[in-house]
């Protein structure tokens, strides 16, 4: 919930955000309607950044509770965050050091990787996650967070971070051969430098691409963002736990920008359902990953100027992802997100906007520049035979006040849909503020002194600040001699 309540109490006229509450049937109907919307508008965000966003999300949030679709009572979601609320690569390193249960070679301090199967032109075919080789758990990924093996693309991105770690270990061994006898030190040094590189990429690449430009500039180009905005402190971020407005709404925009299929290399184009199948829980239980399914990141990121890269969809209230488990309505992600938001007592989008505008005249001018968010936009419905546009909330307004008391997640997607043409960014100003404020504190707070103050050894990653630069390094792989 908004952490600004105490500050707001300084003025009796301060608006207090109210919990947004609707019946379970209304949320299901809205989720179904979002599921039915056709979305083909491309953004200027490379498709690979969608999965980097998912990777980042897994780094700082994992909830212990499941969603109860039947009765989404505000406050009923009692789960706790099972990972550290920090950008510390916990999904890669967990909280510990060397651990052979996490696919780490105790003799070298490097991550083990699995060879892919079949003919390839590469000298090094280790392009899959470390996995259990046999037995009842065959195929299970030996990584701290099972969600990073939930689809082929997120698993392949995780592999790139393992390869980056191993390259850093090799670098320090080449510079300091005596460190061969201290694999624990090598592991910790690589962990520190990879994590510092990751945090740079989050700040200067990911956030720069997705946040509304004036909001990004306020938080990441000004030395004192709150003073610049005329505010006396954070509204959402409280330090101990991340606000639900971030984890259940503002940072869940990625679900709306996912495409239904991806060209993962020159040979293979996979649907979302096929991407879900090439994981340790499905096809990889009984076989290695085929070499022709290794992701060529040239198709997903702007590694060159050749124009091969696929773009993510523009953020919008269209959300047609179906999960590969369960039946309707539990398998529709739009419905699950709406129910989770209400069970976590999220306020409406309108009340959050009013509270932010009350905080700062400069913030109000940024938000107000785009006028009221259109919460009932004209859309195209996938089942329509003639592509005639319809109002998204057609049939819902007679029995609800969704348009004026909008679930925060839905409201922020509508905001992005309205503001996406401005500055060519993905998010609108309210969503951007929530994300920027929280990430500003996450990036300036660390329990690891080496991450905050910089590594004590030479850092081979010091010049890397974008995901594309990292992938150019980790995907470089000499070809076999012909």
From TrEMBL:
Keyword Secreted applies: yes
Entry GO terms, CC: extracellular region
Region (Disordered): 1-20
Stored Pfam families: An_peroxidase
Gene3D superfamilies named in the record: Haem peroxidase domain superfamily, animal type
Compositionally skewed regions (Polar residues) per UniProt: 1-17
Single Gene Ontology MF annotation: heme binding
Top-level lineage group: Bacteria
Cellular compartment(s): Secreted
Annotated GO biological process: response to oxidative stress
Record InterPro entries: Haem_peroxidase_animal (IPR019791), Haem_peroxidase_sf (IPR010255), Haem_peroxidase_sf_animal (IPR037120)
Coiled coil feature spans: none
Keywords: Glycoprotein, Secreted
Protein name: Peroxidase
